[in-house]
Amino acid sequence: MAPPLLQSKYRVPGHRPGTVTRPRLVEALAAALRTAVTVVSAPAGFGKSTLLAEWLADLPADTATVGWVSLDKRDDDPARFWGYVLAAFRAATGVGDDALGLLASSPSSPETALVALLNDIGRMPRDLVLVLDDLHLVTSPAVHDGIAFLLEHRVDQLHLVLATRADPPLPLARWRARGELLEIRAADLRFTEQESAAYLNGPMGLSLSKHDVATLDGRAEGWIAALQLAALSMRGREDVGTFIAGFAGDDRHVVDYLAEEVLARQPEEVRGFLLETSILERLTGPLCDAVTGREGGRARLVDLERANLFLVPLDDRRQWYRYHHLFAEVLRTHLVDERADTVPELHRRACVWFTERGDTAAAVEHALAGGHVDRAADLMERAMPAMQRERREAELGRWVRSLPDEIVRVRPVLGMAFVGALAQTSEFDTLEQRLAEVERAVRPDGGAWPARVPPGLVVVDEDGYRSVPAGLEVYRAALALRRGDLDAAAAHAREGLALTPASDDLTRAAAGALGGLASWSRGDLVGAEAAYVESVAGLHRARFVADVLGCCIALGDIRRTLGRLGDAERLYRWALGLSDPAAPLRGAADMHVALAGALIERDELTAAAEHLDTARRLGAHRGLPQNPYRSRVAQARLLGIRGDLDGALALLEEAERVHDGDYSPEVAPVPAVRARLRVRRGELPQAEAWARERGLSPGDEPTYLREYEHITLARLLLARRDDTAPALLARLLAAAEDGARAGSVLEILVLQALAAQARGDVPSALEALRRAVALAEAEGVVRVVADEGPPIAALLRTLPKHDPAHAYGRRLLAACAGVTPGPALVDPLSDRELDVLRLLGSDLDGPDIARELSVSLNTMRTHTKSIYAKLGVTSRRAAVRRAHDLGVLPRRR
Amino acid sequence: MSSTGPQRYAIRVRGHLASRWASRFDGMALVPQDDGSTVIDGPVADQSALHGLLRTISDLGLPLVSVTPSDGPAHLSRRTP
């Protein structure tokens, strides 16, 4: 797109020469700086833009900063619309890169960018007047929702001015009732007789009597465009009186009548130029030359502007213009009436000119308007890769829908664009049909995909053609996922990855993400990991950075479950490095939260807390949909470790309220996280209620999707000293080992150790503990072990010095909750001594204890003395208390 | 929502229109009325086509008087030349 054209979209128009000043309306507009919204609503030709330009030109520079967007019908798309609004804001203020970056990274959800915009406006020392001109050209509800969002979250400095021919579908009545709406309507905008006189006898250089002015004003009903046309018709006319009488006595639509008068008075070459160039929405000299086939377009445009022939300059350098809307309508009607047969050729010439200039959008529009559908289809197909890269799929979809069906059916590449459009509007039945049709067209016999384009089909983008088979599989994977058929989804995605040409990053990314999601939900984490890696790589090469961050949440979760904490942490740090700290992307907050989660696992709690703070400071708009709940769960974990169980519980309740899984499988449901905290607080009835509600029972067959819940259930059973816990844990362990989920294996082993310890099976407890410590040590994991506190500490202490697990066991011991790390027992208790100590904590007397352990009373006494010595105590009660303090014995409930 | 094919509409606007404007209204008849208004009459495919017509009327700055379902052009009083 040509830069001057782009800039002209947000140029604040200067005061137009040849217009009359309107102090009464400028005064009324002063109130716009005290209200949230100003609506200037009137039909075409009522001087809306001219009035706003006059008001803003007179506004003292220190009053407010002005942003202006001239909308056209192509802006009926949220990404494009807000792109121009943000560009206008940046042009006006010099800030706003942040919001533009957010919009570019997630064009489909502009709210995040709007929050950044509001933050920027809120920091401005002065007010901001933001004018949206010709808002009636925008009809998309998504855009109106965005405007309403901006106003619902408005900051005091923002004053929105909407110029439109039709009232926008916004809550005007509500704002009116709140006194936050200023309205300038047709009745206000009509020229009064005085204004008509000032205009006709002033800038238009006529000298009409009061009576003539009254007649004209009455016939035109103060409609400015009509008065302007009338003035043009009268200039240089001898018989002004006859003209006025003829006009007043005619029933014709005023613009129809007057425009014909004006046109009839132009020399033939001017008239021809006006008619032929009326097909153009925007005019510039070389373009006019191309369309008319004659030289001198630029000089002609300058002449027309000087003659006040409804030519509106779009930039200060007089390069681009447009006709006044109303006049353009009249010109086009005359063109079609008089020279209908030339119209397709005029559009073809405009199309060629825009194609050469690289403005595909304008070229496509002219091709379609001129009925050159094949040319339009060629242009679309060539533009597809760039449009997909620029996230303009919505626009592409609208284009393809405007083509006749028979054109799309013989073009498999465009057929895929059409399928994309159907996906966006959720027309899945039609989508499935079109997929089948594209496939039948390319390989009617269902054999191998033909490398050459089969006869009868049209392909201009060869690369696009090579991506068709993979694209088909990707959409089939998406459809299968939607049906809940995970096996089929994973299979189609795998096939899609296999068929994707090496250069097609976006198809690779889509196939990877869909396959990853399907495999993850099936519990195939190894397959899911591999698929997401492909997806992240494809997205990264395609520079879809915000999507990379979104994918990394899933990939990190999967790696952690696979027991690859180090890989997960490296991934988060790499992803954070992709986001510029000066203008962080949406998703940066999620990466900080994920990193905090990994650091908590390593017991690096201070660093974790810093990352959670950073995420908070980045603001809610820098978080993806899952972030509100995930950040709270991470914070709750941190509070729990620090002993603030009430605070943790409150945060988890909040997390449940703000939960949004964003289509990810719910592998660690917040209610289960909460149930674990209940168990830890000893609130077993609440945890039991949760288990009942979730229909969990110790006899369930373990599945990956319920693994977290089942482990939670096992924790509950352990706390209840329920003897079904060991069997459940054994089955969970087998399932986790089967799925290579080393992260889950570690947690289950810890619980097995505790279960064995509780039933006095020390050898089994130590065996499970040794395996757990080895797994933890490999990845530097601390908390999943240390969170178990005194019971696990007691076991860790029994690891002998020569044991391979001893060294890392000491590290874990140091981190155990509620346990003073030093001074540990210099001389650890033996297994037998531990047995005796445990019974010393019971109500049994000496002889009973001896009997229980099948030893003599003397042997029992020897053990007791040794225990007293090692613990540095002299009584049975002190021994038990000291053992509890050291975590050698579990605390009694 | 109607499923019975195109419905006929008579759209009345203020002012007379030269017949060349018929091309802008998709071949509908422009019938000038004695009271200085014009009735744009003809079949309209569906609601979105009707809104498209109303938008054209707005683009041309024609003051809209009424939109009514119509039985056909017969009942409209054609101005005698």
UniProtKB/TrEMBL annotation, chain A:
<keyword id="KW-0804">Transcription</keyword>
<dbReference type="Pfam" id="PF00196">
    <property type="entry name" value="GerE"/>
</dbReference>
<dbReference type="InterPro" id="IPR027417">
    <property type="entry name" value="P-loop_NTPase"/>
</dbReference>
<dbReference type="InterPro" id="IPR016032">
    <property type="entry name" value="Sig_transdc_resp-reg_C-effctor"/>
</dbReference>
<dbReference type="Pfam" id="PF17874">
    <property type="entry name" value="TPR_MalT"/>
</dbReference>
<dbReference type="InterPro" id="IPR036388">
    <property type="entry name" value="WH-like_DNA-bd_sf"/>
</dbReference>
<keyword id="KW-0805">Transcription regulation</keyword>
<dbReference type="Pfam" id="PF25873">
    <property type="entry name" value="WHD_MalT"/>
</dbReference>
<dbReference type="InterPro" id="IPR000792">
    <property type="entry name" value="Tscrpt_reg_LuxR_C"/>
</dbReference>
<dbReference type="InterPro" id="IPR059106">
    <property type="entry name" value="WHD_MalT"/>
</dbReference>
<dbReference type="InterPro" id="IPR011990">
    <property type="entry name" value="TPR-like_helical_dom_sf"/>
</dbReference>
<dbReference type="InterPro" id="IPR041617">
    <property type="entry name" value="TPR_MalT"/>
</dbReference>
<protein>
    <submittedName>
        <fullName>LuxR C-terminal-related transcriptional regulator</fullName>
    </submittedName>
</protein>
<feature type="domain" description="HTH luxR-type">
    <location>
        <begin position="822"/>
        <end position="887"/>
    </location>
</feature>
<keyword id="KW-0238">DNA-binding</keyword>
From TrEMBL, chain B:
<protein>
    <submittedName>
        <fullName>Uncharacterized protein</fullName>
    </submittedName>
</protein>
